Amino acid sequence: MSIRRLPSELVNRIAAGEVVERPASALKELIENSLDAGAGTVAIRLSAGGLDLIEVTDDGCGMSPDDMPLALERHATSKLPDDRIEAVSSFGFRGEALPSIASVARLTLESRVPNADGWRLTVDHGEPAGEGPASLPPGTRVRVEGLFDKVPARRKFLRSPRAEYAASLDAVRRLAMARSDVAFSLEHDGRKVLNVQPSDTPTRVAALLDRELERHGLGIDCVRDGLTLAGVVSLPTFNRGMADHQYLFVNKRPVKDRLLVGALRAAYRDLLARDRHPVAALFVEVPADELDINVHPAKTEVRFRDPAAVRGLIVGGLRAALDEAGHRSAAREQFAAAVNWQAEPVVPEAAALSSFFDPQSPAPAAVMDRPATYAAPMGRAEQAQPVPDQAPRYPLGVARGQVAATYIVAEAEDGLVIVDQHAAHERLVLERMRRANAGGPVARQALLMPEVVELDEPDCDRLEAAAGELAELGLEMERFGPSAMLVRATPAPLGKTDSRALLADLAAELAELGTALALRDRLDHVAATIACHGSVRAGRVLSVAEMNALLREMEVTPHSGQCNHGRPIWVNHDHADIEKLFGRR
Ligand SMILES: Nc1ncnc2c1ncn2[C@@H]1O[C@H](COP(=O)(O)OP(=O)(O)OP(=O)(O)O)[C@@H](O)[C@H]1O
Ligand SMILES: [Mg+2]
User: Ligand 1 — pocket residues by CB below 6 A?
Assistant: First the structure.
């Protein structure tokens, strides 16, 4: 077999295999070119998810008719004036995208530089297919038709137009987030689906992902060891069932990076349940020499010289912001749900609640009319007292009663606060353990009689291996035969606890965490599991004094807005909300 040089047509097609995987990747390349050309407006049109047509029009610098054939030639670029790839700040630098796309589709390039006439050039699967004058405003329009039509091997791997459209939309979003100073519009099958004007980054991110993010998002801005982190993340209570709304940008380049996923997870660790995910758009800036951008054919991955520093920046920066915001809760949504009560017949919860507004006065007519089949309200209130003078000073108000032995109802200056007592207590215990842990080992409470807890052997192995860590958290135990542990002391912040249940849960937790996590991370997870055990369970009747003590402690505790699983711990309905509830507004 003799070795031969491949014809350039074939070389381009091979390159296309890497650069252009699907319509979304071609679209990404075209938008990047528009941004590199200094566009202030990028207009995108797609048909059938980009399978039939991808068209990108910009008002950038344009190309002269002489430059246009060069743009379609491999390894021809205007973006590397000297040979330093590290110093490149444009998206492109390889001179590969257009020739690659043109080798697997019909590509028409129309362009015009200011004060000159426009020109058009068409290439069909790598072959010249005509050129001539074109009329268009200064800028460039690229049209890609029938992508992979003549490349059956590729076509086979494409998904439905819907799926390809979703991927294209994601590509548009990423670049529109990266450049909030540029206007973007997107039309799919003749329907306008996106239109954003230049704005600041948080506004752009909210416009692209979820308007609610403007209220339930946290701005991030921090610098550490010469690295900066900026962007927006959601409050823990504003979470999603999929990790699909997480975007990372490195030196303004959208990248897909496992590092981000892991770092986000770590930052929200004990604030979200395992199957819930935050929304995030994070912008990392690192010095150019800390980064290799030339490691992936589509440039969607980068390599950091010091990944641990970047991870530390993200986890540390987010954690600090979340700690600061810890007292906020996404209470508004709960209110929105509550307002629906109006539209339906009065439900028992509403009846029970309304008896709390003023247990002394007759209940509202609607409540009195309720059918006899309704369960008796489970509410309980002590003799109503005038609200003490100091009430306005307490953000969470003064306890007025308990509902269903589960919720504390408090009166605050500006309205009504309802607290989930179990979630609240769990959070308090966790934060107490954390505080204690930060200053050395957590205090332990020795058991009068050591307790034998029987578990299966692998669970005992796990607990035994983690005994040192657990001792830090105030849990002292040792192996007691092949399938039992002997518990000598439990964490003091927990109070009296069921050792068996605690050990079983910890063993399960350790099995899931494996040995992959750093010690500190593990301790925090385990502390959360322990905290859950020490909590005032729903269903326990509390005295007004106990309720007030809980409220006061919450006010000074970080993250008291949401429980370890990301649900709100308390909701606040201000007077205006309550008036709305009763149709007075
Ligand atoms: N929308 C546009 N406006 C102005 N010039 C453009 C536009 N699109 C492409 N060009 C020119 O065509 C050249 C080739 O584009 P192409 O995308 O193939 O390569 P690149 O952007 O330089 O590098 P990469 O392959 O990394 O994207 C660019 O360097 C640029 O000079
Ligand atoms: Mg390019």
Answer: 29, 33-34, 36-37, 58, 60-63, 71, 77-79, 92-98, 140
